[in-house]
Amino acid sequence: MNDAVPEHQDVSRRSVLWTAGAAGAGLGLGAFGGTAEAAEQRGGQAAGNATEGAAAKEPARQGRTMIGVPFQRRSTVRVAMIGLGNRGAAMAELYLAVPGVRVVALCDPVKAKAERVAAKVTATGQPAPAVYVHGDHDYEQLLRRGDIDFAHVATPWDSHFEIARSALLNGVHVGVECPIALQLDQLWDLVDLSERTRRHCMQLENCCYGRNEMRVLRMAHAGKFGDLLHGAGAYNHDLRSLMFDPAYYEGPWRRLWHTRLRGDLYPNHGFGPVANYMDLNRGDRAVSIVSVGSPSLGLSQYRAANMPAGDPSWKESYIGSDRTISLVQTARGRVIRLEHDVSTPHPYSRINSLGGTKGLFEDYPERIYIEPDHKNDEWGDFSKYAEWDHWLWKEHANPPGAHGGMDYMLVFRLMQCMRLGLVPDFDVYDAATWTSPVPLSHLSIKQRGLPQQIPDFTRGEWRRSRPGMDSERPAEA
């Protein structure tokens, strides 16, 4: 799921079915609820399968690198949507808005959800899509069809790894809402599978395509901030009322993650854009992470004030830190601060900050201070730097869809890369890097701030400079 403000998520029984099945099989977790000590133990098992303190040396490569590998050119991209709750249904509409794209298959255990999206497909004049609604794992039948170019996964977190793995094994390029997986060994499995199958596996990080993010990216690469020194990103979004709303998070799968892990559950929205600014995996890389967490009080206090006696939530023990703060060090010595807080009252913020030897940008609210443009310690007007907008935003000034248009930009650009046979803007190595703080921050907090080594998912290829999000407009757009 990818839920920049306002958040969108499936409210169907799919949340329960896919969460429960994957939780037992993939994470080795026991029954939900129980004591805080039991929850701590389950969280440690979930996070620590592939690391003890510092991460082990990266495993040997099983295939060739996917760095710089273009998509096969195609006149029409055939897309399958797996997971059709609020998020998946909304994204399906954006695929239908992009020329040269056909939505050919849909999957969700709730038949009514699939039928609603199917009706939207035929309303655009496209042929009726195939519908897969027979249980939690019917996506496996969908992925065996042989006529799917790309699968978009918008299901609860627990199921992301297994669905992405199935797509790759069936020769299908796959994009997954955040986070792409929840354990280090799962991240390595996706890297290895992508390399072996020669199919791309991507984290569908929409915030990388935000207008401010893409403007800052181009300014950073043009040297407007000087030599880059530090950045910050976050997912600070008060979700208390939604996490206790049975009509929103049915299950309630998302709240239950706060009984399992203490670390940063959702780092991608903040980490992805800053990683792009600093060209991580393209001349620099994330080396280590140190995390601390506050007490876990927000959800229990909200429950006490708002939930009736006898509500199932009273059986839950929350261990997830209300606010986690992590510091990521890069190979070039830069520092990235990550924050996560969905359990306390505060305005929405992804922070989105970047600083260098010539000045800095800070978002929420947006403001800038760079030399020689500004002086006297007074913030400047970021809107005056519209000339630095990415070409995508210059050509699509008023894009459709939610989240200020960033969702549409992600879909348009990804489909453009597939139609024209281009290298995608980010790849499986970025997906693994941006998600690695989930298990590693949990371990660092459990070990009272002990640094955790971030694996080199590129196996040394990060030293080579290469293009990323700061793309050139293709001749054939």
Quick description:
With 477 residues, this protein is an alpha/beta fold. The protein has helices at 14-26, 36-47, 86-96, 111-123, 139-143, 160-169, 184-197, 211-221, 240-243, 253-256, 268-277, 298-306, 391-395, 406-420, 428-435, 437-446, and strands spanning 51-52, 54-55, 77-82, 101-107, 130-132, 150-153, 173-176, 201-203, 228-236, 286-293, 324-330, 335-341, 353-356, 359-362, 367-370, 452-453.
Mean pLDDT reading: 89
How many strand segments?
Answer: 16
The low-confidence parts are 1-55
Number of helices: 16
The percentage helix is 25-40%
Structural commentary:
The protein is an alpha/beta fold and 477 residues long. Helices cover 32% and strands 16% of the residues. The strands form 3 sheets. It has an 8-stranded mixed β-sheet with strand order 15-14-13-9-12-11-10-16. Strands 5-4-3-6-7-8 form a 6-stranded parallel β-sheet, with helices on both faces. A hairpin with a 4-residue loop joins strand 11 and strand 12 (335-341). The longest helix is centred in the last third of the chain and has 15 residues, at 406-420.
